[in-house]
Amino acid sequence: MSIPPLMTFQEDFLSGKLITKEYVHFSEIDCPELDIWIGRVVRSISLEFLHEILFTILSELLVNGCKANGKRVFFSEQGLDLWNEKDYARGISLYKDEFGHHRKRVFSSLEKSNYSISLSTIYKEDFIEFRVRNNAKILPEEKNRIVRRVQASTKYKNINDAYRESVDNEESSGLGIVLIHILLRNSGIPNQFFELVTGEDFTEVIIRIPKQLIPKDSQSRIRDLLIREVNSLPPLPAQINKLILIAKKKDVTFQEIATEAEKDPAIAAEIIKIANSPLFGVHKSIVSVFEGVKRIGLKNLESIFLALGAKKILNSRYAKQVLVWTHSFKTSMYVKFLLEEKRKHIQLLETATIAALLHDLGRMVLLSLDLSQVNQIRVLRSDDNTEISEWVEEYTVGTTHSEIGYLISDKWHFPEEILDVIRFHHKPWQCKSRNNILCQIIYLADILANIGKGKGNYFTVEPEVLDYFEIHSEKDFREMQDRFKVKFEEHREEYQNLFI
């Protein structure tokens, strides 16, 4: 089954339509399509942090289903009765060797059989449901083994513990079930969301992902806390607001803005520092505010002043601002590299690089608030606040850093293009304004800038965005990421402390 365009996929999925993929067998060549399919599901419902986990779980279940079907064909070819205990004991070691060393031959035999596996998903009121269905009746031994694996999984804290202790010495399939339960449990999803259903002509594993991990009243209190936090933020400094108003004047001159900026030595110094940064290309150093204002340009000054105002307030209030600004500058530079290399929408270069500086403002609030007072669930916590941890925080809280950032930027009257970028930089397809392409640019640059953290890959990027930027293969994507990384390292020291 080919994957429909993103908007069609999301419309079908969110309307509660059952979406199904059929496989005769599942192998490495099917992984990219599965990756894209899962990506579209999780992006539709803001559960991006589950992408890699779901891919691991579903691919494991599909391979197990394929393996079970192959076993049935193999036993038939060998003249063995699968349901006869003596035949089973005699044939299973032979099949284990066959599948391990001649998997392609097993797959080839499946193509001539009536066996198949299917993967389905459906959007429900309280959860997302995934079903992996095999059109073969499960053997008692297979069912007992799965039950034992489910029970065994409770004693393991992580995958390494499971590997240290052999849980299956017959078919080496037990670790797959253990893996699934550990991943679900460590994602905050309890074991009761895993179900095995059997019938006379099918075997089905059902995984239900709840939309929330804490009660609605607790989640509402967290959202209220976040909204109160945003509402408590002070307005932008008076001098910043004055400079923004001056910059908006139709007949304003560089000298007029520079003269006003020089009244605040801190702002004057920031303008010179930003003008000398890689954001505005490689130039000889300038030393005056007038030259700085001229280099930044009238159309960019409003956004720069907004960024300076945000810096002044947020840096004094939140402990995690260094983490956010560091990533924001990296994304900003990747935006610059992307547009310069592709020569697409080059007229948006300065607007896009500045918008990228501000795209993650909401993360400062979300990462810095102490949410323990409302009994926030503890899942996948990490000492370095990785991107996966952040997605889990958002899943638990019931809101996203994009939504929080939008509230902040709306409070401070950011221009429309930056409001859209902050709100839609993870979902540019939801931006219906003229700023859609701007959101796509920051979306792609943000993912490229995050890959070094082990987050995201070619197959997690929306294919339509890749096509638009003429990235036609995983090789193209990796080579681009490598080029950008080298360029970024060349300039790191020049701007890493620009807003910190």
TrEMBL record:
Source organism, top-level taxon: Bacteria
Span of domain HDOD: 233-428
SUPFAM superfamilies tied to this protein: HD-domain/PDEase-like
Coiled coil regions in record: none
InterPro entries per UniProt: HD/PDEase_dom, HDOD, RNase_Y/CdgJ
Protein name: Signal transduction protein
PROSITE patterns for the chain: HDOD
CDD domains: HDc (cd00077)
